[in-house]
Amino acid sequence: MAFYVVQFLTGLASAASLFLVASGLSIIFGVTRIVNFAHGAFYMLGAYVAFTLTARFSGALGFWGAILAASLIVAAVGVIVEMLLLRRIYHVPELFQLLATFGLTLMVEDLVVLMWGPNDLVGPRAPGLKGAIDFFGQRIPSYDLFLIVLGPVVLGLLWLVFQRTRWGVLVRAATQDRDMVAALGVNQKWLFTSVFALGVFLAALAGALQIPRDAVNHDMDLRVIVDVFVVVVIGGLGSITGAFIAAVLVSELNAFGILIFPKISIILVFLVMASVLIVRPWGLLGKAEAPARRTPGLTVNPWRPLTSNERIAAAIVFLFAASLPFFAGNYALNVGAEIAIFVIFAASLHFLMSAGGLASFGHAAYFGLGAYGVAFAVKLAGLPMAIALLAGPLFGLLGAVVFGFFAVQLSGVYFAMLTLAFAQIVWSIVFQWVELTGGDNGILGVWPEHWAASASHFYWLSLAIAVLVVSGLRMATFSPFGFALRATRDSPLRTEAIGVNGKRIQWSAFVIAGTVAGIGGALFAYLKGSVFPDVLGIPLSVDALVMVLLGGVETVSGAIVGAIVYKALSIWLVSQTEWSKLVLGAFIVLIVVAFPKGIVGTVESIWHRRPSSLRDALLGSKIETAE
Amino acid sequence: MKLSVESLNSHYGPAHILFDVGLDVADGEAVALLGRNGAGKSTTFRSIVGLVAQRSGRIQFEDRDISSQPTHAIVRGGLGYVPEERRIFTDLTVEENLEVGWQAPRANAPQWTRERLFELFPNLAEMRGRPGGRMSGGEQQMLTIARTLMGNPSLVLLDEPSEGLSPKIVEQMVEAILTMKKEGVSLLVSEQNLHFARLISDRAYIIERGRICFSGTTAELDARPDIRDAHLAL
User: Fold this and answer.
1) Is A271 near chain B, with CB under 8 Å?
2) Predicted TM-score (pTM) of this structure
């Protein structure tokens, strides 16, 4: 019995830091409508800065002063980020904001390695709270008890600030209607900045307080952000009390889940999240969100199928690509096959985003399921390649059927967060279920059979499938199904009113996108000859998003160009620099700020205007706010 | 001159909405802006307070050019705005709604306190702690005016204050507006209801399809039934 009580208390202690980060995210979202992906990065920075400061100043005053100072320093960094970056993107669609803050996260990950090195750092224990308390033979660290008290105290303080101060009233008013607050004479800019500073302060404080419990390392940002997304989805985005309840719930599930499913405790959290979403789609204490300002994919230039001239041009490009093996070497062909595979992957996400208006932040899950599907088919079932290849899309399809059902119940940022959480859950299962998947060691020896083994044959195979897939997705976009999907994207209510079951249409689109991603994953497994959990990881999901964005989310097939340019660039980049995350992150931020329409979108808008207004077209590539 | 607008043009995306709109409000004056639905009344107001991004022309408030200022700076200068859709903060209580509107008093405008506003709108006094979302339309309309007055403005733009209100509430509204006028607040009030406008204003403009097509005193307007029929009749 005592053991369970201690386990419960440990859960509560973890809940405190989770709550701090989640409440910060919630507060920032409430006012600025930005889901700050970089929140995990600020948490991590808080821990690193606190590590440095606590090493320099000793004693109780030194330790606690260092924790506070670290949080304030990171909050100041947050203010700079808000003023330099976020102020430029408050009016762009949520997806772009998520991506820009993700780019920031990537940069911070490399920056902390640059400044603090790649190794885990162990901070000092808290003075005065080093010991443990004996509880019927079980030991509870005093520091945990301190955290358990801290959570409710912070909740109470936040409540006081929001209920009892003028600033709090303004923030709550702005959460509901920021334009009206401006129309009453309040300068939103500083309101936003101060809110952002508070949110970042809370995240940094959580990170700083973590150092006596855990080692500081450079991947703690992604770990915490996924948990935080789960917490705010369960608790309801924008609700601080909801964040508290959900943080406790998730932490307790983790604490006890380990006893029930030692290997895959995350399944329990997933089950709870899924059931909450079915009963209350906006979370336990959340409110229904107004529809997104502007769904991705919505465009001023109407889409149309290719004209015959454009078909000829596409055919010429295809013939050129198909002739590559006659003059290129094996390395180039391998790169070519990889690009073709990523065209498939990016096109599948692009279909979901542009035609469906659904921005998935976890699309790699289906790519990775496809790759593992092939690996299982080859390694466990010993199937021949032609059949094993089908296992990829089948796995992608099954995953998309299950997760898609829940995901399409939501929209906008909730959809993005939920898909990300699902992907991370799949990743954790694959990573932890070592008996089946080999865990971190992956599954090796998934080589293509003789007929597809040579570089040129495999390249042709990938190219052919890519062309088929892209044509198929284009046909779907211009089919009655595609029309219904686009209508649902543009106006869910009106579409419902003419008798279209919007959710089912979106679910079907999700399944199509997942299946196609599975095809890409299947080829990828054969290309590399092995699969690792990386193929399900968040970075890969984000790669796909960047490809779509780079190509142009408002176009029909921009992702093809995006995939080719991005993949070629990143293969080159990785060979050139050690700090690829830093460069890549900066690149993502730059695209979002300067070219939100992407390559194809920018070219199209120049095309649609007169050549004389080239400058206007470039300037106009900044996304206008929809009225 | 309290407010002077010259050749104001506004666009929503590619759509041209206002065409060379010009109007004046003198110190202490109450002016009506009349027009049918969709004539451009709200857009005129939104352009004056800087809520329409694409606007051009000269807008002078107390002899300062405000045409390139952001909304909050314009409102800080003493130009209050009451939007048509009310836009009460539904999660906030009546008192909290008033708090959001608060600004420091200014020399050239009457000063309002919470208690004075509760005298002006007795209904609100009875529901200080009630969330804005649980009030009737008329009560919300009063709250939105009171909220703007908390900023101690010298000029108030009132967008269709009588819209959708019961006759009894409209009467109270007329009372409140006349009190504001007596205190020295200048007013620009948009209306479809000529009867209502006549009760509160000295002068009127009529706007149709984004152009000002009549300007004169309310008495002149009364004497010209042809103009009323042409531009205001439904």
Assistant:
1) no
2) 0.85
